[in-house]
Amino acid sequence: MSEKLNLKLFLISLLIAILLLIPYELYWRYVERWPAGYDSQNLDYWADWRGRVDDLGKDDVIIMGSSRGHFDINIHLWDSITGTRPIMLAYAGSSPFHPLADIVDNSEFDGLLVLSVAPGLFFTVKDSWGAGKGRDFVDHYYKRTYAQRFSHWIFQYIDPQFSYIQEDLSLRILIERLPFENRDSVQNQALWPPMVHMDQYRNIRMLKGMETDTVLQNRQTAIWTPPVWKNRYKDSVDVIMDHYVGLIKKFKEKGGRIALIRPPVTGGYLENEPILFPRDKYWDRLLRASNSPGYHFMDHEDTKNLIPPEWSHLNRKDADLYTKTIIKLLREDELL
Amino acid sequence: MLLIASYVFYGLWNPPLILLLWISTVVDWMAGKRLTVEENKRKRKMWLILSICVNLGFLVFFKYGNFLLENFQYLLALINIEYTPPAWDILLPMGISFYTFQTMSYTIDLYKRKIQPAKTFLDFALYVTFFPQLVAGPIVRSDELVPQFYEKKRATQNQFFMGVMLLTIGLFEKTVFADSLFSPVSDEVFGASAALLPLDAWVGVLAFSGQIFFDFAGYSLCAIGIALMLGIALPDNFRYPYGSIGFSELWQRWHISLSSWLRDYLYISLGGNKISVRRTYVNLMLTMLLGGLWHGAAWTFVFWGFLHGLYLVVERLLKNYIKIGKQTLAMRLFLAFLTFNCVNITWVFFRAKSFENAMSILKSMFFIHGETPILISNHIVLVLGVVSLMFFGHFAMRNHSLVEVIGRTPVWLLALGWSIMIFGLMIVQTSGQQFIYFQF
């Protein structure tokens, strides 16, 4: 057995590794401006909050959907206005196809469910990429092992101290984003710019950089812009509608209340979503079929002129305004 | 302490399934005790059969239950009988393929009077559940492990840190190479619905070839490293298999603990190469078919085993007729390259979801169809680069061991390499992908 391997060599190696880590962390924190905080893609944080759903009562609120619902509602402001902080179960890049079914079928929750609708992710089939992402965190909630829970319990306070600990900065993603020349018709994706900060309540706030830096905004809108804008599942709209309408009806039969929201968009989304997801065939149809109240940003003075900096998510000031508006509308309709 | 730690380790995955592990332990301990003292040949055979039936029974139920039902349904459908089996959601206990084989080796060796029994039940229980190798091997023989329990165990500083080094290398191989680089590429290619360009198909298959090696060899190194930190030596499980020249050599280098188990308890029991040439080929094929089935309850795994059996048979045939004189370096490299690519073809069946998926990939690989590129250039360059290094590295290391190389490496280079690996582990951030062999 080699005598070179000893405590001294190990400690020197560990020290060198830490010395390599310091500039790495500083690069992501100060050059690329990623904030330290809770990783919005982390399945365990979602599972922790999902675990509290069964403790909720009729006066409580859950927010579900994808990133627009996640980023555009300030749950701490909501708490200061109403006295109750919603549980944030929205999740960026995902469809609520499976999580909604989980809450309706597998929990006793009968309070207010605020369901955010981003058409491209909401109106998808059960095996789509977005729905699959939603299924992943529901599955993780039910199947996480004691070893995973233990690991999360140890690291949940350590990980948020570092900027580089984000799924968007994992080695796998960095490999995919290396700037090699593209092949014809297969484009490498650019590295996503830092957009938001999440706290331990899963409340998200847009970063100042994204609010003001047009270079970052343009990087993000370039990512949002597909080669061709399309509605992949337009032939499955009846199946999708039946799924959501069925769940909403079942939830109401349990005594729950539901409200749907369409947060503001601009740019490519404002141009293309009405064409790909005509309002009468999607949003209005969903409200009619489920007999549910809905708050479309275009229908209200306070929200129709809000401009998300990168087309899809509101800055902090506008998110606060949007939150207040939604609370006001929900109170007017006696849902809150 | 180690025994309790091992049960806690297993229980962190799914506590109720400790019971299964325990039943296997108790049955084989009792069978082993009887085999030690019983002289009556018939009774000895009965105790052996009990052990084999209990272990294989668990394996068949948990691992092959649904597979058998599906095939039964298929056979009935061939004769126009409609049968819908109950929908069983059978959880596959982690490590069952490994610990059942491990405990069977104990009772079989006692039956053949090749080993001494463990002195106490607790010693035997620790042999079965020793946590570093419980869930994915190496499959250790009792005479390799149990005697170590009786020595005063305290790892020296060198042993301990050699163990830490091996653990570091194993984790690095798994998280950096297998999970971060190779797995996304392999998943993308094998999950593609369109027919692919040959380049994409080959890169996907090479990516899987790299993934399965780094994943499984990485796990084995972790197991060996952790055991060494406890002062316990486990056998090597991989010896640079992609540098093999020929398939007989491959199976002396790949998953050594399984291939030696199959050789000693199946191939040799069937008669090995002692009966006739034709029977040797049959025995080889049967061993590899069952070896394939061990990996998973699907015909694609059996076919993977069949291909390896075919390779071994053809290799033997060729050796009888073709005599190669002194092999130059270039010739050995060529033969190793040929072996590597024949193995890559078998990996297509191992990884594919179905025969249709496998045939589509093969057709794409051999220019029969395919126009659609799907891989980004980053993946192509990195996969080809790392796989090339892996192949040449394995070839260069054919007659060396990792421990030996570590011993000869200058201290400054060891420190640099170790620090880079630790740094890699700090930044990799995998989503905790399961080791591939945990599903077996």
What are the segments of chain B in which pLDDT stays under 50 over at least 5 consecutive residues? none
What integer is the average pLDDT of chain A? 93
Query: What is the end-to-end distance of chain A?
Result: 70 Å
- Please give the number of β-strands of chain A: 7
Give the overall silhouette of chain A. globular
Radius of gyration of chain B, taken over Cα atoms and rounded to an integer in Å: 23 Å
Number of helices of chain A: 16
Weakly predicted, low-confidence segments of chain A: none
The CATH H-level homologous superfamily of chain A: SGNH hydrolase
Helix and strand composition category of chain A: alpha/beta
Question: What value does the average pLDDT of chain B take?
Answer: 90
What percentage of residues of chain B falls in helices of 4 or more residues? over 70%
Q: Can you write the helix and strand succession of chain B as a string? A: HHHHHHHHHHHHHHHHHH
Portion of residues in beta strands of chain A equals 5-15%
Structure description:
The complex is a heterodimer of chains A (336) and B (440). Chain A is an alpha/beta fold. Chain A has a single domain, classed as Rossmann fold (3-Layer(aba) Sandwich). Helices cover 49% and strands 8% of the residues of chain A. In chain A, the strands form two sheets. In chain A, strands 2-1-3-6-7 form a five-stranded parallel beta sheet, with helices on both faces. In chain A, strands 4-5 form a two-stranded antiparallel ribbon. Chain B is an all-alpha fold and 440 residues long. In chain B, helix 9 packs across helix 16. Chain B starts with a helix and ends in a 12-residue tail after the last helix. Chains A and B meet through helix 1, helix 8 and helix 9 of A and helix 8, helix 16, helix 17 and helix 18 of B.
